[in-house]
Write a structure and sequence with these properties.
The complex is a heterodimer of chains A (318) and B (259).
Chain A: E1 51-56, E2 62-67, E3 70-75, E4 78-87, E5 100-105, E6 112-117, E7 122-126, E8 138-140, H1 153-157, E9 161-164, E10 170-174, E11 178-183, E12 192-195, H2 204-209, E13 219-221, E14 227-231, E15 236-241, E16 246-251, E17 267-269, E18 278-280, E19 292-295, E20 301-305, E21 310-314
Parallel strand pairs in A: 17-18
Antiparallel strand pairs in A: 1-2, 2-3, 3-4, 5-6, 6-7, 7-8, 9-10, 10-11, 11-12, 13-14, 14-15, 15-16, 19-20, 20-21
Chain B: H1 2-5, H2 18-23, H3 25-51, H4 60-79, H5 82-92, E1 138-139, E2 147-148, H6 151-155, H7 158-163, H8 189-196, H9 207-210, H10 246-257
Antiparallel strand pairs in B: 1-2
Helix pairs in contact in B: 3-4
Classes of the chains: A mainly beta (318), B mainly alpha (259).
Keywords (chain A): Repeat, WD repeat
Family (chain A): Belongs to the phosphatase 2A regulatory subunit B family.
InterPro entries (chain A): PP2A_PR55, PP2A_PR55_CS, WD40/YVTN_repeat-like_dom_sf, WD40_repeat_dom_sf, WD40_rpt
Protein backbone atom coordinates (compact mmCIF):
# COMPACT_ATOMS: atom_id res chain seq x y z
CA UNK A 1 0.00 0.00 0.00
CA UNK A 2 1.38 3.39 -0.83
CA UNK A 3 2.34 5.46 2.16
CA UNK A 4 1.50 9.07 2.47
CA UNK A 5 0.18 11.75 4.72
CA UNK A 6 -3.18 11.93 2.98
CA UNK A 7 -3.66 8.25 2.50
CA UNK A 8 -4.40 7.30 6.09
CA UNK A 9 -7.00 8.29 8.60
CA UNK A 10 -6.08 9.67 11.98
CA UNK A 11 -6.33 6.25 13.51
CA UNK A 12 -4.14 4.64 10.92
CA UNK A 13 -6.71 3.04 8.73
CA UNK A 14 -6.06 3.42 5.09
CA UNK A 15 -8.29 5.69 3.16
CA UNK A 16 -9.69 4.74 -0.16
CA UNK A 17 -7.75 6.93 -2.55
CA UNK A 18 -10.87 7.67 -4.53
CA UNK A 19 -12.37 9.35 -1.46
CA UNK A 20 -9.56 11.80 -1.17
CA UNK A 21 -10.85 15.09 -2.49
CA UNK A 22 -8.71 17.56 -0.62
CA UNK A 23 -5.13 17.54 0.38
CA UNK A 24 -4.04 18.17 3.90
CA UNK A 25 -0.63 19.37 4.81
CA UNK A 26 1.07 19.01 8.17
CA UNK A 27 0.41 21.94 10.45
CA UNK A 28 2.83 23.25 13.00
CA UNK A 29 1.10 23.31 16.38
CA UNK A 30 2.63 24.74 19.51
CA UNK A 31 2.98 22.18 22.22
CA UNK A 32 4.84 21.79 25.45
CA UNK A 33 8.52 21.39 25.04
CA UNK A 34 9.56 17.82 25.48
CA UNK A 35 13.17 17.11 26.01
CA UNK A 36 14.31 13.60 26.01
CA UNK A 37 17.91 12.72 26.49
CA UNK A 38 18.81 9.12 26.13
CA UNK A 39 22.18 7.95 27.30
CA UNK A 40 24.17 5.99 24.80
CA UNK A 41 26.58 4.57 27.29
CA UNK A 42 27.05 4.87 30.99
CA UNK A 43 30.41 4.55 32.70
CA UNK A 44 29.46 3.84 36.24
CA UNK A 45 31.59 3.91 39.34
CA UNK A 46 34.55 5.58 37.74
CA UNK A 47 34.39 8.40 40.25
CA UNK A 48 34.01 8.36 43.98
CA UNK A 49 33.32 12.06 44.28
CA UNK A 50 31.19 14.52 42.40
CA UNK A 51 32.27 15.03 38.81
CA UNK A 52 32.88 18.68 37.99
CA UNK A 53 34.41 18.59 34.51
CA UNK A 54 34.75 16.66 31.33
CA UNK A 55 36.98 17.72 28.49
CA UNK A 56 37.53 16.23 25.06
CA UNK A 57 41.13 16.24 23.93
CA UNK A 58 42.37 17.77 20.70
CA UNK A 59 43.38 14.35 19.51
CA UNK A 60 39.68 13.42 19.44
CA UNK A 61 40.67 10.08 20.91
CA UNK A 62 40.80 10.79 24.60
CA UNK A 63 38.88 12.79 27.11
CA UNK A 64 39.15 13.45 30.79
CA UNK A 65 36.71 13.56 33.65
CA UNK A 66 37.47 15.25 36.94
CA UNK A 67 35.92 14.95 40.37
CA UNK A 68 36.76 16.65 43.65
CA UNK A 69 39.89 14.62 44.20
CA UNK A 70 40.79 12.75 41.04
CA UNK A 71 41.10 13.11 37.31
CA UNK A 72 40.64 10.14 34.99
CA UNK A 73 41.67 9.77 31.41
CA UNK A 74 39.46 7.91 28.99
CA UNK A 75 39.95 6.56 25.52
CA UNK A 76 37.00 6.57 23.21
CA UNK A 77 37.77 3.05 22.07
CA UNK A 78 38.25 1.65 25.55
CA UNK A 79 34.98 1.50 27.32
CA UNK A 80 35.64 -0.78 30.23
CA UNK A 81 38.10 1.33 32.14
CA UNK A 82 39.76 4.66 32.58
CA UNK A 83 43.19 5.68 33.78
CA UNK A 84 43.75 7.81 36.80
CA UNK A 85 46.10 10.69 36.02
CA UNK A 86 45.66 12.97 39.02
CA UNK A 87 44.92 11.97 42.58
CA UNK A 88 45.01 14.51 45.38
CA UNK A 89 43.20 12.46 47.96
CA UNK A 90 45.25 12.53 51.17
CA UNK A 91 45.94 9.33 53.05
CA UNK A 92 43.95 10.75 55.92
CA UNK A 93 40.82 12.50 54.78
CA UNK A 94 41.02 14.76 57.77
CA UNK A 95 44.06 16.33 56.17
CA UNK A 96 41.98 17.38 53.20
CA UNK A 97 42.13 21.11 52.67
CA UNK A 98 41.92 21.48 48.91
CA UNK A 99 39.80 19.97 46.15
CA UNK A 100 39.83 20.01 42.37
CA UNK A 101 37.22 22.35 40.97
CA UNK A 102 37.66 22.21 37.17
CA UNK A 103 39.87 20.66 34.50
CA UNK A 104 40.38 21.09 30.79
CA UNK A 105 42.60 19.84 27.99
CA UNK A 106 44.72 22.27 26.06
CA UNK A 107 43.07 23.03 22.70
CA UNK A 108 46.18 22.24 20.68
CA UNK A 109 48.61 20.22 22.77
CA UNK A 110 47.02 16.90 23.42
CA UNK A 111 49.44 16.05 26.19
CA UNK A 112 48.63 19.13 28.27
CA UNK A 113 45.77 19.81 30.60
CA UNK A 114 45.08 22.11 33.52
CA UNK A 115 43.11 21.74 36.69
CA UNK A 116 42.04 24.37 39.17
CA UNK A 117 41.58 24.10 42.91
CA UNK A 118 39.51 25.47 45.74
CA UNK A 119 42.56 27.39 46.94
CA UNK A 120 42.78 29.47 43.81
CA UNK A 121 45.63 27.61 42.13
CA UNK A 122 45.86 26.22 38.63
CA UNK A 123 48.18 23.39 37.78
CA UNK A 124 49.27 22.64 34.28
CA UNK A 125 50.25 19.04 33.71
CA UNK A 126 52.07 17.25 30.94
CA UNK A 127 51.02 13.67 30.49
CA UNK A 128 54.32 12.79 28.89
CA UNK A 129 56.13 13.44 32.14
CA UNK A 130 54.59 10.63 34.14
CA UNK A 131 51.69 8.28 34.14
CA UNK A 132 50.37 9.82 37.30
CA UNK A 133 50.47 13.57 36.92
CA UNK A 134 50.91 14.37 40.56
CA UNK A 135 53.71 16.77 39.84
CA UNK A 136 52.59 19.72 37.88
CA UNK A 137 54.68 21.28 35.17
CA UNK A 138 53.45 24.72 36.12
CA UNK A 139 51.63 26.19 39.08
CA UNK A 140 49.68 29.37 38.54
CA UNK A 141 48.84 31.34 41.62
CA UNK A 142 48.43 35.00 42.37
CA UNK A 143 49.71 36.17 45.72
CA UNK A 144 46.97 37.36 48.00
CA UNK A 145 46.34 41.06 48.31
CA UNK A 146 46.97 41.74 52.01
CA UNK A 147 44.70 44.77 52.06
CA UNK A 148 41.75 42.63 51.06
CA UNK A 149 42.38 39.85 53.49
CA UNK A 150 39.40 38.46 55.37
CA UNK A 151 38.13 35.15 56.64
CA UNK A 152 36.45 34.78 53.27
CA UNK A 153 39.61 35.26 51.24
CA UNK A 154 40.11 31.60 50.57
CA UNK A 155 36.51 30.94 49.66
CA UNK A 156 36.37 33.75 47.15
CA UNK A 157 39.67 32.70 45.67
CA UNK A 158 38.31 29.25 44.90
CA UNK A 159 38.24 28.84 41.15
CA UNK A 160 34.90 27.77 39.74
CA UNK A 161 35.90 27.46 36.09
CA UNK A 162 39.00 27.36 33.90
CA UNK A 163 38.93 27.76 30.11
CA UNK A 164 41.74 27.91 27.61
CA UNK A 165 41.59 30.56 24.94
CA UNK A 166 40.95 29.24 21.45
CA UNK A 167 44.48 30.05 20.39
CA UNK A 168 45.88 28.13 23.34
CA UNK A 169 48.09 30.93 24.59
CA UNK A 170 45.99 32.00 27.52
CA UNK A 171 43.64 30.55 30.04
CA UNK A 172 40.87 32.23 31.93
CA UNK A 173 39.81 31.47 35.48
CA UNK A 174 36.68 32.52 37.31
CA UNK A 175 36.67 33.02 41.05
CA UNK A 176 33.84 34.46 43.06
CA UNK A 177 34.40 38.11 42.33
CA UNK A 178 36.58 38.22 39.25
CA UNK A 179 37.73 36.79 35.96
CA UNK A 180 41.48 36.45 35.41
CA UNK A 181 43.38 35.91 32.20
CA UNK A 182 46.68 34.06 32.52
CA UNK A 183 49.51 33.87 30.07
CA UNK A 184 50.60 30.25 30.08
CA UNK A 185 54.18 31.41 30.21
CA UNK A 186 53.73 33.41 33.39
CA UNK A 187 52.84 31.60 36.56
CA UNK A 188 53.22 34.36 39.07
CA UNK A 189 50.15 36.42 38.32
CA UNK A 190 47.43 36.89 35.72
CA UNK A 191 47.98 39.31 32.89
CA UNK A 192 44.46 40.68 33.13
CA UNK A 193 41.88 40.81 35.89
CA UNK A 194 38.28 41.84 35.44
CA UNK A 195 35.97 42.56 38.35
CA UNK A 196 32.63 40.95 37.79
CA UNK A 197 30.76 42.31 40.80
CA UNK A 198 33.20 43.96 43.14
CA UNK A 199 30.27 45.57 44.98
CA UNK A 200 29.66 42.21 46.59
CA UNK A 201 32.94 42.35 48.50
CA UNK A 202 31.33 44.20 51.37
CA UNK A 203 28.50 41.65 51.45
CA UNK A 204 30.58 38.54 51.74
CA UNK A 205 29.36 37.68 55.20
CA UNK A 206 25.73 37.70 54.09
CA UNK A 207 26.62 35.78 50.98
CA UNK A 208 28.38 33.25 53.15
CA UNK A 209 25.35 32.96 55.34
CA UNK A 210 22.98 32.34 52.46
CA UNK A 211 25.51 30.10 50.71
CA UNK A 212 25.69 32.25 47.59
CA UNK A 213 29.41 32.55 48.14
CA UNK A 214 29.69 28.93 47.04
CA UNK A 215 28.00 29.52 43.69
CA UNK A 216 30.10 28.29 40.81
CA UNK A 217 30.07 30.59 37.85
CA UNK A 218 31.39 29.57 34.46
CA UNK A 219 33.14 31.78 31.96
CA UNK A 220 33.79 31.67 28.22
CA UNK A 221 35.79 33.21 25.39
CA UNK A 222 34.42 34.49 22.14
CA UNK A 223 35.67 33.00 18.90
CA UNK A 224 38.69 35.23 18.43
CA UNK A 225 39.54 35.50 22.15
CA UNK A 226 38.94 39.24 22.22
CA UNK A 227 35.94 39.16 24.56
CA UNK A 228 35.23 37.11 27.65
CA UNK A 229 31.88 36.59 29.31
CA UNK A 230 30.59 35.37 32.63
CA UNK A 231 27.40 35.42 34.67
CA UNK A 232 26.36 37.20 37.84
CA UNK A 233 23.25 37.68 39.97
CA UNK A 234 19.91 39.26 39.19
CA UNK A 235 20.07 37.52 35.80
CA UNK A 236 22.93 39.79 34.86
CA UNK A 237 25.81 38.67 32.74
CA UNK A 238 28.98 40.56 31.98
CA UNK A 239 31.19 40.88 28.94
CA UNK A 240 34.72 42.23 28.97
CA UNK A 241 36.33 43.40 25.77
CA UNK A 242 40.00 42.78 26.30
CA UNK A 243 41.22 44.90 23.42
CA UNK A 244 39.06 47.94 23.93
CA UNK A 245 39.08 47.71 27.72
CA UNK A 246 35.33 48.06 27.80
CA UNK A 247 32.81 46.07 29.71
CA UNK A 248 29.06 45.78 29.73
CA UNK A 249 26.41 44.35 32.01
CA UNK A 250 23.33 42.88 30.38
CA UNK A 251 20.23 41.22 31.73
CA UNK A 252 18.60 38.01 30.57
CA UNK A 253 14.98 38.21 31.49
CA UNK A 254 11.72 38.29 29.67
CA UNK A 255 10.44 41.16 31.76
CA UNK A 256 13.27 43.45 30.88
CA UNK A 257 13.34 43.03 27.15
CA UNK A 258 11.30 41.75 24.28
CA UNK A 259 12.60 39.26 21.75
CA UNK A 260 14.74 40.88 19.10
CA UNK A 261 15.03 44.09 21.06
CA UNK A 262 18.52 45.36 21.69
CA UNK A 263 19.55 44.69 25.26
CA UNK A 264 19.94 47.74 27.37
CA UNK A 265 23.13 47.90 29.42
CA UNK A 266 22.59 47.70 33.15
CA UNK A 267 24.43 49.36 35.94
CA UNK A 268 24.63 48.43 39.58
CA UNK A 269 24.92 51.28 42.03
CA UNK A 270 27.50 50.26 44.58
CA UNK A 271 26.86 53.05 47.00
CA UNK A 272 25.96 56.66 47.26
CA UNK A 273 23.28 58.21 45.21
CA UNK A 274 21.54 55.89 42.88
CA UNK A 275 21.07 57.26 39.42
CA UNK A 276 18.03 56.63 37.35
CA UNK A 277 18.02 53.14 35.81
CA UNK A 278 20.70 51.98 38.17
CA UNK A 279 19.97 49.08 40.42
CA UNK A 280 21.13 49.18 43.99
CA UNK A 281 23.08 46.28 45.40
CA UNK A 282 20.45 45.62 48.01
CA UNK A 283 17.74 45.08 45.44
CA UNK A 284 19.65 42.45 43.52
CA UNK A 285 17.95 39.10 43.44
CA UNK A 286 20.50 36.51 44.50
CA UNK A 287 18.23 33.68 43.50
CA UNK A 288 18.45 34.73 39.89
CA UNK A 289 21.93 33.66 39.03
CA UNK A 290 23.50 33.01 35.68
CA UNK A 291 26.02 30.25 36.23
CA UNK A 292 26.34 28.91 32.68
CA UNK A 293 27.20 30.86 29.57
CA UNK A 294 28.53 29.82 26.17
CA UNK A 295 29.76 31.63 23.09
CA UNK A 296 29.52 30.27 19.57
CA UNK A 297 33.04 29.44 18.35
CA UNK A 298 32.68 31.46 15.17
CA UNK A 299 29.62 33.67 15.31
CA UNK A 300 28.59 36.33 17.78
CA UNK A 301 25.85 34.23 19.21
CA UNK A 302 25.71 33.52 22.90
CA UNK A 303 23.71 31.21 25.11
CA UNK A 304 22.91 32.28 28.65
CA UNK A 305 21.18 30.07 31.18
CA UNK A 306 19.05 31.50 33.95
CA UNK A 307 17.45 29.28 36.55
CA UNK A 308 14.64 28.07 34.34
CA UNK A 309 15.29 29.46 30.92
CA UNK A 310 17.88 29.41 28.21
CA UNK A 311 18.42 32.64 26.32
CA UNK A 312 20.10 32.88 22.97
CA UNK A 313 21.37 36.31 22.00
CA UNK A 314 23.11 37.44 18.89
CA UNK A 315 24.75 40.49 17.51
CA UNK A 316 22.50 43.22 16.24
CA UNK A 317 22.03 42.56 12.55
CA UNK A 318 22.69 45.69 10.55
CA UNK B 1 11.22 27.62 70.49
CA UNK B 2 12.49 31.12 70.25
CA UNK B 3 11.14 31.90 73.71
CA UNK B 4 13.06 29.10 75.18
CA UNK B 5 16.28 30.15 73.70
CA UNK B 6 16.80 33.14 75.85
CA UNK B 7 14.91 32.74 79.06
CA UNK B 8 15.33 35.10 81.93
CA UNK B 9 18.13 34.29 84.23
CA UNK B 10 21.15 35.54 85.97
CA UNK B 11 23.14 38.26 84.38
CA UNK B 12 26.75 37.50 84.00
CA UNK B 13 29.62 39.86 84.21
CA UNK B 14 33.12 39.76 83.14
CA UNK B 15 34.35 41.30 86.34
CA UNK B 16 37.96 41.00 85.35
CA UNK B 17 37.44 43.14 82.34
CA UNK B 18 35.91 46.06 84.11
CA UNK B 19 39.22 47.76 84.71
CA UNK B 20 40.25 47.47 81.15
CA UNK B 21 36.96 48.82 80.02
CA UNK B 22 37.44 51.96 82.00
CA UNK B 23 40.93 52.51 80.76
CA UNK B 24 40.48 51.91 77.13
CA UNK B 25 36.84 51.56 76.45
CA UNK B 26 36.78 52.52 72.82
CA UNK B 27 39.41 50.19 71.57
CA UNK B 28 38.10 47.41 73.70
CA UNK B 29 34.66 47.88 72.31
CA UNK B 30 35.93 47.90 68.77
CA UNK B 31 37.91 44.80 69.46
CA UNK B 32 35.13 43.08 71.20
CA UNK B 33 32.85 43.90 68.34
CA UNK B 34 35.31 42.23 66.04
CA UNK B 35 35.61 39.33 68.43
CA UNK B 36 31.90 38.92 68.54
CA UNK B 37 31.59 39.06 64.81
CA UNK B 38 34.34 36.54 64.54
CA UNK B 39 32.65 34.31 67.03
CA UNK B 40 29.41 34.68 65.17
CA UNK B 41 31.13 33.64 61.98
CA UNK B 42 32.64 30.68 63.74
CA UNK B 43 29.27 29.61 65.05
CA UNK B 44 27.66 30.00 61.67
CA UNK B 45 30.40 27.92 60.08
CA UNK B 46 30.03 25.13 62.56
CA UNK B 47 26.31 25.00 61.96
CA UNK B 48 26.93 24.83 58.25
CA UNK B 49 29.37 22.00 58.70
CA UNK B 50 26.90 20.06 60.70
CA UNK B 51 24.16 20.70 58.21
CA UNK B 52 26.31 19.30 55.43
CA UNK B 53 25.22 15.90 56.58
CA UNK B 54 21.63 16.75 56.03
CA UNK B 55 22.04 17.65 52.44
CA UNK B 56 20.90 15.08 49.98
CA UNK B 57 24.05 15.69 47.99
CA UNK B 58 26.80 16.66 50.37
CA UNK B 59 29.17 19.03 48.69
CA UNK B 60 32.77 18.20 49.48
CA UNK B 61 34.19 21.44 48.12
CA UNK B 62 31.84 23.51 50.21
CA UNK B 63 32.58 21.47 53.32
CA UNK B 64 36.30 21.81 52.83
CA UNK B 65 36.04 25.56 52.38
CA UNK B 66 33.90 25.97 55.48
CA UNK B 67 36.21 23.76 57.50
CA UNK B 68 39.19 25.80 56.37
CA UNK B 69 37.40 28.96 57.44
CA UNK B 70 36.76 27.48 60.86
CA UNK B 71 40.40 26.53 61.13
CA UNK B 72 41.50 30.05 60.20
CA UNK B 73 39.30 31.60 62.81
CA UNK B 74 40.51 29.25 65.46
CA UNK B 75 44.10 29.86 64.54
CA UNK B 76 43.62 33.57 64.77
CA UNK B 77 41.86 33.25 68.09
CA UNK B 78 44.71 31.17 69.36
CA UNK B 79 47.31 33.61 68.10
CA UNK B 80 45.79 36.71 69.55
CA UNK B 81 45.27 34.90 72.77
CA UNK B 82 41.64 35.74 72.96
CA UNK B 83 40.84 32.19 73.58
CA UNK B 84 43.15 31.03 76.34
CA UNK B 85 42.74 34.36 78.09
CA UNK B 86 39.04 33.88 78.32
CA UNK B 87 39.48 30.43 79.66
CA UNK B 88 41.85 31.59 82.30
CA UNK B 89 39.51 34.27 83.40
CA UNK B 90 36.72 31.84 83.61
CA UNK B 91 38.69 29.31 85.48
CA UNK B 92 39.75 31.70 88.16
CA UNK B 93 36.30 32.98 88.58
CA UNK B 94 34.81 31.38 91.58
CA UNK B 95 31.38 32.77 91.53
CA UNK B 96 29.09 30.32 89.82
CA UNK B 97 26.76 32.97 88.69
CA UNK B 98 29.57 34.61 86.84
CA UNK B 99 30.36 31.63 84.80
CA UNK B 100 29.45 31.66 81.22
CA UNK B 101 26.97 29.03 80.51
CA UNK B 102 26.14 28.18 77.05
CA UNK B 103 24.63 25.71 74.85
CA UNK B 104 26.39 23.22 72.78
CA UNK B 105 26.14 23.71 69.12
CA UNK B 106 27.30 20.48 67.80
CA UNK B 107 25.97 18.10 70.29
CA UNK B 108 22.75 16.56 69.42
CA UNK B 109 20.17 15.61 71.93
CA UNK B 110 19.67 11.96 72.50
CA UNK B 111 17.17 10.11 70.50
CA UNK B 112 14.44 10.45 73.02
CA UNK B 113 12.57 12.80 70.86
CA UNK B 114 13.64 15.79 72.78
CA UNK B 115 13.04 19.12 71.36
CA UNK B 116 15.56 20.26 68.89
CA UNK B 117 17.69 23.09 70.05
CA UNK B 118 17.99 25.94 67.72
CA UNK B 119 20.90 28.22 67.39
CA UNK B 120 20.76 31.74 66.47
CA UNK B 121 23.49 33.54 64.79
CA UNK B 122 22.84 36.52 66.89
CA UNK B 123 24.27 39.81 66.01
CA UNK B 124 25.34 41.53 69.08
CA UNK B 125 24.43 45.15 69.29
CA UNK B 126 25.11 47.31 72.25
CA UNK B 127 26.79 44.70 74.26
CA UNK B 128 29.06 45.79 76.99
CA UNK B 129 32.32 44.10 77.39
CA UNK B 130 31.51 43.07 80.89
CA UNK B 131 28.69 41.05 79.67
CA UNK B 132 29.45 38.40 77.21
CA UNK B 133 26.53 36.54 75.89
CA UNK B 134 27.70 33.45 74.25
CA UNK B 135 25.26 30.86 73.24
CA UNK B 136 27.93 28.63 72.01
CA UNK B 137 30.07 27.76 74.91
CA UNK B 138 30.26 24.34 76.21
CA UNK B 139 30.49 22.94 79.58
CA UNK B 140 32.75 20.08 80.05
CA UNK B 141 32.50 18.15 83.16
CA UNK B 142 35.51 18.10 85.29
CA UNK B 143 35.20 18.64 88.96
CA UNK B 144 35.26 22.39 88.84
CA UNK B 145 33.24 22.42 85.71
CA UNK B 146 35.43 24.74 83.74
CA UNK B 147 33.88 26.40 80.78
CA UNK B 148 35.55 26.45 77.46
CA UNK B 149 35.41 28.87 74.66
CA UNK B 150 34.49 28.75 71.91
CA UNK B 151 31.93 26.21 71.12
CA UNK B 152 33.97 24.21 68.70
CA UNK B 153 36.14 22.91 71.46
CA UNK B 154 33.27 21.99 73.63
CA UNK B 155 31.79 20.13 70.76
CA UNK B 156 34.59 17.69 70.62
CA UNK B 157 35.06 17.35 74.32
CA UNK B 158 31.89 15.48 74.78
CA UNK B 159 33.63 12.42 75.94
CA UNK B 160 34.28 14.19 79.20
CA UNK B 161 30.63 14.44 79.82
CA UNK B 162 30.22 10.86 78.98
CA UNK B 163 32.47 9.86 81.79
CA UNK B 164 30.47 11.65 84.36
CA UNK B 165 27.26 11.04 86.06
CA UNK B 166 24.52 9.50 84.11
CA UNK B 167 21.80 11.20 85.91
CA UNK B 168 18.93 10.98 83.57
CA UNK B 169 16.96 14.12 83.62
CA UNK B 170 14.52 15.43 81.19
CA UNK B 171 16.40 17.70 78.94
CA UNK B 172 15.31 21.25 79.07
CA UNK B 173 16.70 23.73 76.76
CA UNK B 174 20.31 24.13 77.48
CA UNK B 175 20.52 27.84 77.38
CA UNK B 176 19.81 28.00 81.02
CA UNK B 177 20.38 31.16 82.88
CA UNK B 178 20.89 33.83 80.32
CA UNK B 179 19.59 37.25 80.52
CA UNK B 180 20.05 39.57 77.70
CA UNK B 181 20.75 43.14 78.35
CA UNK B 182 19.68 44.23 74.96
CA UNK B 183 16.88 42.68 73.06
CA UNK B 184 18.02 39.67 71.26
CA UNK B 185 17.99 39.77 67.55
CA UNK B 186 15.44 37.51 66.03
CA UNK B 187 17.09 34.26 65.34
CA UNK B 188 17.74 33.86 61.72
CA UNK B 189 14.56 32.42 60.31
CA UNK B 190 16.45 30.48 57.73
CA UNK B 191 18.28 28.65 60.45
CA UNK B 192 15.02 27.88 62.16
CA UNK B 193 13.69 26.50 58.96
CA UNK B 194 16.74 24.39 58.58
CA UNK B 195 16.21 22.87 61.97
CA UNK B 196 12.49 22.53 61.74
CA UNK B 197 12.41 19.06 60.37
CA UNK B 198 15.80 17.85 61.23
CA UNK B 199 15.97 14.51 62.78
CA UNK B 200 17.87 14.06 65.93
CA UNK B 201 20.23 11.41 64.84
CA UNK B 202 23.81 12.17 65.36
CA UNK B 203 26.10 13.34 62.67
CA UNK B 204 29.68 12.63 63.26
CA UNK B 205 31.48 15.76 62.26
CA UNK B 206 34.43 14.07 60.74
CA UNK B 207 32.29 11.88 58.58
CA UNK B 208 31.36 15.07 56.91
CA UNK B 209 34.74 14.97 55.30
CA UNK B 210 35.31 11.29 55.21
CA UNK B 211 31.89 9.92 54.87
CA UNK B 212 30.84 11.40 51.60
CA UNK B 213 31.69 8.14 50.04
CA UNK B 214 33.72 6.41 52.61
CA UNK B 215 32.95 4.65 55.76
CA UNK B 216 32.61 7.00 58.67
CA UNK B 217 35.80 7.31 60.54
CA UNK B 218 36.04 7.41 64.23
CA UNK B 219 39.19 9.45 64.42
CA UNK B 220 39.18 13.02 65.62
CA UNK B 221 38.93 15.89 63.29
CA UNK B 222 42.13 17.87 63.39
CA UNK B 223 40.62 21.22 64.15
CA UNK B 224 40.99 20.65 67.81
CA UNK B 225 44.54 19.49 67.47
CA UNK B 226 45.50 22.68 65.75
CA UNK B 227 44.48 24.67 68.74
CA UNK B 228 46.59 25.52 71.64
CA UNK B 229 46.44 22.87 74.23
CA UNK B 230 46.63 25.18 77.18
CA UNK B 231 42.97 25.17 77.82
CA UNK B 232 41.83 21.92 76.49
CA UNK B 233 41.18 19.06 78.78
CA UNK B 234 43.33 16.05 78.69
CA UNK B 235 41.24 13.90 76.56
CA UNK B 236 40.63 15.86 73.44
CA UNK B 237 41.44 12.89 71.44
CA UNK B 238 38.39 11.00 70.77
CA UNK B 239 36.04 11.51 67.97
CA UNK B 240 33.61 14.21 67.47
CA UNK B 241 30.72 12.08 68.40
CA UNK B 242 28.42 14.01 70.53
CA UNK B 243 26.46 11.10 71.68
CA UNK B 244 26.54 12.29 75.25
CA UNK B 245 23.29 13.48 76.49
CA UNK B 246 22.38 16.95 77.28
CA UNK B 247 20.93 15.44 80.39
CA UNK B 248 24.37 15.59 81.82
CA UNK B 249 24.83 19.11 80.62
CA UNK B 250 21.66 20.13 82.30
CA UNK B 251 22.73 18.49 85.47
CA UNK B 252 25.95 20.37 85.45
CA UNK B 253 24.26 23.59 84.71
CA UNK B 254 22.01 23.16 87.64
CA UNK B 255 25.03 22.76 89.83
CA UNK B 256 26.57 25.89 88.46
CA UNK B 257 23.54 28.02 88.60
CA UNK B 258 22.90 26.77 92.03
CA UNK B 259 19.26 26.27 91.40
Amino acid sequence: MPEGYNLKEEDGRYRDPSTVTTLRVPVFRPMDLMVEASPRRVFANAHTYHINSISVNSDFETYLSADDLRINLWHLEITDRSFNIVDIKPANMEDLTEVITAAEFHPNHCNTFVYSSSKGTIRLCDMRAAALCDKHSKLFEEPEDPSNRSFFSEIISSISDVKFSHNGRYMMTRDYLSVKIWDLNMETRPVETYQVHEYLRSKLCSLYENDCIFDKFECCWNGNDSVVMTGSYNNFFRMFDRGQKKDVTLEASRESSKPRAVLKPRKVCAGGKRKKDEISVDSLDFNKKILHTAWHPQENIIAVATTNNLYIFQDKLN
Amino acid sequence: MKNKMFPKGTKRKFSDNEDIVEENSVSIKVMSSYNLQRQSLLDMSLIKLQLCHMLAEPNLCRSVLIANTVRQIQEEMTLDGSWPVMTETLNTNQNPSDRLIATEILCRTSKDGEEEKTFSVVTYDNLHTEEVLEDSLCITSTEEVPVFLPSTFGAWEREDLKKNSDDPKPTDQVFGAFELKSPVATPDPSIDELFSDVDTSYYDLDTMLTGIHGTPKMGPYDLLDSLSSSHSPSSVTSNLSCRSDLNELDHIMEIIVGS
